[in-house]
Specification:
alpha+beta; two-stranded antiparallel sheet
């Protein structure tokens, strides 16, 4: 029998793949691309909406990530025999907290209003295609295909 507290494990697992070096978009680490985007915009935080997307984001990396992680949450719920109606809201936040330090947080809200979250702070530099090598294999969640 499934229980809503399984959202704790889903938060942990989703965030683990989100900060992973295998989370890439077009062959480059997605997290580095988010930091580069934040620096270009002069912002310190971005948010990915995983429940119901209200509008398409300006950036294709964010749009691809929202789509992938929305599906990942739903796939994990299905694997745990959790009905989709239990998911009221889900977001992932990326915040620059210091030079080369980023805090990533996932928050899932159940239909009963309880919030489940997981957070990690990691070292990441902005994406720079001049000094980075592009990934060419299709390994893990690479390229966010959802398989």
């Amino acid at each position: 029998m499934s229980r809503r507290n399984q959202f704790n494990g889903i938060c942990h697992d989703i965030l683990g793949t989100f900060v992973s070096r295998y989370n890439d978009h077009d062959g480059y680490w997605s997290l580095g691309q988010y930091v580069a985007l934040l620096e270009r915009l002069g912002e310190s935080q971005l948010q990915l909406t995983l429940r119901d997307a209200t509008e398409a984001p300006d950036n294709r990396v964010i749009a691809a990530s929202e789509k992938y992680y929305r599906g990942a949450v739903l796939r994990m719920m299905e694997a745990n025999s959790m009905p989709q109606v239990w998911l009221a809201n889900a977001i992932i936040k990326v915040s620059i907290v210091a030079p080369a330090k980023v805090a990533c947080e996932i928050e899932i809200v159940s239909d009963l209003g309880r919030t489940y979250r997981s957070e990690r702070t990691i070292t990441v530099r902005p994406h720079d295609p001049v000094i980075e090598l592009r990934r060419t294999d299709r390994f893990g969640p690479s390229n966010q295909k959802g398989r």
